[in-house]
Design the sequence.
């Protein structure tokens, strides 16, 4: 039974899979890899936002996953394919403990303390030499080659980005699958309910703390997993790249796409914000200014994001059918 | 012994500046409910105004200080009128305020880097000489710093408690709807709050500039201020005073005895522990967000 | 069924509920009336777990629920409606009621996330039940309408529908008839009677005296957080203290 939606999805996946064969330039493939990572990070932000948690420290868990995987593979000598999931597990455990503390603080306390947490993580990575200090970690190993039946093996080198692209695609699709599964289950409905009216949700028996903590842990673990991928892809980790600037960028991706669209919004937002500066030839120095202006414009003129415009379109088309105002 | 007093005085000087900054930040978050992440940039603006008026233009310190207080206030008011005013009364207000503030921060911080470069500058002493207090030598500059900041803090307290404007501000922080019934124009209050808050930041930057160096990275103080505010209890003025002073002392002693990074981590750890046991901060008031 | 023992709730220096002793009997409709600020909504908030009491206890079916949180109390079988229209405004009417069945799921959490056939069947079942509840309330035709678009009267009954979906033993109705015209009020009265016939106990806070007299088996009158009268509707009607309590509020309003 193939519904239209299913066909669209398959089509999109095929296009994404064929992309690197069409776009041969490794620099562009790198961009698309970053688009993928950023999109997933933005999705985790929206996940937490749905339940009423505004997380200002997403980059922190991204960084925890990255550093964890780097340390595991370099200091403990674990093969990369083992350190990737292990790093995700470590991130999940840390998220569980820290999350319990943060979520308990209530909405406002959560916001401020995730902000502080974001700063503190950078400080920790930078201060202690075991993490390489402010210079960071260099030369992180790439994943070991995977044997593919009939084709040979797929090696991960720094030169050809294609295998990394496919790995990223695989991880991203997996994350989207997991997120969708949760969103369409009672957990997802509970998150939505809590975000719309926490009091009402509580009176219907939903444990706010548990659901919020769940969202936090899932979001942070996914961010951590993408972080560990990033570590083995990029090869170098610098503490500064895991700080508030990164978190702010993630926010922009989410809001530009539209925070009411948990999967599609981040993809669009991330795509635009990663590719547009390239086309406009915006240098690294100017980029924060560009981002800052976009943020202010977004918030003033387009708070529902680009996809939010489509909703406006829909609403204009359908007049309400119920015109009587009293019960019979 | 004299080193001890020296450190305490240093801590007092720094602490009072943090009290100023924390108070301004508390005003903005307590009354306008804006988590003003760009606040540190106005502090930096004040410092740079002092530098650019005093060094190339040879403006005397006190006039420069006045400019350093007023210019950020005007900029803050403009920013409010152009940006935040439209967000204040819509839904998802808290998130959009934060995003706007973050955008502003990125803009201002990067723009500053472009304009002044990455180097720190120094300002020659405004008042030379040291005063001798019971065998301990304290620079006149530090005394002036302490005196000025104390004066402004007291002035702020009087403004909030004794004047009509102050009462209007406190009314709006409690309950904007009820305040509106009493003919308090909420928008005007928000505008004024932003102006006053930014003025405090600019003044703090201006007063700090001669004593410490002026750097384009000064905006980073925002994090410290947020922690101070958290420690004291968000929105609580007495809490801000207490925790600002504490931070001053910790930094002063910490920088002397330990590596600088470690001192900060200790401060953070201490805050985390205190907040674990007292989520409302020292004054016990995180969620209320009211100016008491 | 429900018993409040010396229940007290202070806000700052003010006692909104002051040493209140109250008993609610099984399957009765108890009316809770009193002037504004008498403590009725605070009482609801404490019983339903949104505020912890300052002192005193609340017993439900013999067990102490005073320190339980709101969601636990919902699981115990107490549901409530809210004074202002508290609904999931961005969801459809059907989705609103459907959310009410949240507590009733039997399949395990993991199975629900994995969307096993069993879980999906249960979900379909609750969607059906939600539809039936809407039919019971006479709102089935509105099922796809956005909650925010409903006229006020329907919003109130939607709130009741959601509370019903939780399969409560005790239902706290906070001013269900407010803002309704005569026909709507008649429908609500009929609805509440039918709810009671299902075996549910009801506490009703309401300002419209006709509704109260018509529906309630028993009435308790509160003023300044304390019980000033208790009895059958006819007794309360002619109770001098009650009249004074209401009139007294009028007089002090005129004097101010």
Sequence:
């Amino acid at each position: 039974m193939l519904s239209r939606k299913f066909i669209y999805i398959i089509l999109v996946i095929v296009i994404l899979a064929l992309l690197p064969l069409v776009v041969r330039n490794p620099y562009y493939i790198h961009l698309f890899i970053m688009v993928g990572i950023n999109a997933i990070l933005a999705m985790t932000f929206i996940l937490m936002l749905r339940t009423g948690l505004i997380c200002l420290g997403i980059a922190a868990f991204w960084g925890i996953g990255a550093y964890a995987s780097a340390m595991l593979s370099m200091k403990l000598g674990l093969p990369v394919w083992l350190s990737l999931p292990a790093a995700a597990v470590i991130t999940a455990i840390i998220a569980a403990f820290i999350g319990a503390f943060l979520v308990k603080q209530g909405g406002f306390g959560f916001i401020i303390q995730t902000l502080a947490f974001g700063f503190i993580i950078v400080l920790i990575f930078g201060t202690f030499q075991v993490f390489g200090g402010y210079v960071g970690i260099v030369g992180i190993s790439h994943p070991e080659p995977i044997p593919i039946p009939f084709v040979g093996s797929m090696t991960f080198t720094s030169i050809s980005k294609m295998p990394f692209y496919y790995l990223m695609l695989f991880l991203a699709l997996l994350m989207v699958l997991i997120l969708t599964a949760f969103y369409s289950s009672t957990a997802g409905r509970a998150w939505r309910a809590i975000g719309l009216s926490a009091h009402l949700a509580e009176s219907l028996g939903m444990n706010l703390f548990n659901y919020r903590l769940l969202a936090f842990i899932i979001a942070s673990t996914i961010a951590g997993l993408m972080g560990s991928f990033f570590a083995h892809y990029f090869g170098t980790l610098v503490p500064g790249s895991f700080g508030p600037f990164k978190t702010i960028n993630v926010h922009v991706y989410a809001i530009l796409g539209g925070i009411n669209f948990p999967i599609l919004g981040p993809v669009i937002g991330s795509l635009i914000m990663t590719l547009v500066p390239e086309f406009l030839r915006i240098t690294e120095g100017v980029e924060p200014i560009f981002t800052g202006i976009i943020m202010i414009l977004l918030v003033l003129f387009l708070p529902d994001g680009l996809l939010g415009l489509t909703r406006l379109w829909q609403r204009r088309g359908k007049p309400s059918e119920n015109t009587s105002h009293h019960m019979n | 012994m004299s080193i001890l007093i020296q450190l305490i005085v240093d801590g007092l000087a720094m602490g009072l500046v943090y009290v100023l900054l924390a108070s301004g930040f508390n005003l903005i978050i307590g009354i306008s409910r804006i988590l003003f992440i760009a606040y540190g940039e106005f502090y930096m603006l004040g410092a740079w105004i002092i530098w650019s008026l005093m060094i190339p233009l040879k403006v005397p310190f006190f006039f420069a200080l006045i400019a350093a207080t007023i210019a950020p206030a005007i900029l803050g008011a403009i920013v409010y009128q152009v940006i935040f005013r439209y967000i204040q009364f819509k839904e998802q207000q808290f998130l959009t305020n934060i995003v706007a503030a973050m955008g502003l921060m990125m803009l201002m911080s990067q723009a500053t880097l472009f304009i002044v470069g990455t180097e720190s500058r120094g300002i020659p002493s405004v008042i030379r000489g040291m005063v001798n207090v019971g065998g301990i030598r304290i620079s006149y500059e530090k005394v002036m710093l302490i005196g000025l900041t104390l004066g402004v803090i007291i002035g702020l307290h009087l403004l909030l408690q004794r004047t009509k404007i102050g009462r209007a501000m406190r009314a709006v922080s409690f309950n904007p709807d009820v305040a509106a019934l009493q003919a308090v124009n909420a928008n005007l209050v928000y505008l004024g709050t932003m102006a006053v808050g930014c003025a405090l930041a600019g003044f703090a930057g201006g007063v700090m500039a001669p004593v410490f160096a002026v750097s384009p990275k000064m905006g980073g103080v925002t994090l410290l201020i947020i922690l101070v505010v958290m420690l004291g209890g968000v929105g609580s003025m007495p809490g801000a005073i207490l925790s600002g002073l504490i931070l001053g002392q910790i930094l002063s002693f910490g920088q002397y005895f330990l590596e600088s990074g470690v001192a900060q981590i200790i401060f953070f750890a201490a805050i985390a522990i205190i907040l674990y046991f007292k989520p409302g901060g020292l004054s016990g008031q995180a969620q209320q967000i009211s100016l008491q | 069924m429900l018993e409040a023992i010396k229940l007290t709730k202070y806000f700052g220096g003010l006692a909104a509920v002051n040493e209140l002793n109250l008993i609610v009997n099984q399957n009765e409709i108890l009316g809770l009336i009193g002037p504004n600020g008498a403590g009725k909504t605070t009482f609801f908030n404490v019983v339903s777990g949104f505020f912890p009491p300052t002192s005193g206890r609340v017993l439900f079916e013999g067990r102490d629920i005073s320190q339980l949180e709101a969601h636990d109390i919902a699981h115990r079988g107490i549901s409530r409606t809210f004074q202002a229209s508290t609904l999931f405004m961005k969801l459809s009417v059907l989705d609103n009621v459907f959310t009410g069945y949240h507590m009733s799921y039997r399949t395990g959490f993991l199975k629900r996330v994995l969307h096993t056939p069993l879980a999906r069947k249960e979900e379909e079942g609750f969607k059906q039940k939600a539809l039936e509840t809407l039919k019971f309330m006479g709102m089935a035709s509105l099922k796809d309408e956005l909650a925010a678009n409903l006229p006020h009267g329907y919003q109130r009954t939607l709130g009741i529908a959601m509370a019903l979906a939780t399969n409560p033993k005790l239902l706290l109705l906070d001013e269900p008839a407010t803002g309704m015209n005569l026909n709507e009020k008649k429908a609500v009265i009929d609805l509440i009677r039918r709810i009671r016939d299902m075996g549910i106990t009801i506490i009703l806070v309401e300002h419209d005296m006709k509704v109260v007299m018509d529906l309630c088996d028993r009435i308790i009158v509160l003023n300044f957080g304390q019980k000033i009268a208790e009895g059958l509707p006819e007794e309360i009607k002619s109770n001098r203290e009650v009249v004074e309590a209401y009139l007294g509020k009028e007089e002090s309003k005129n004097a101010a």
In short: The beta strands of chain B are 130-133, 136-139.
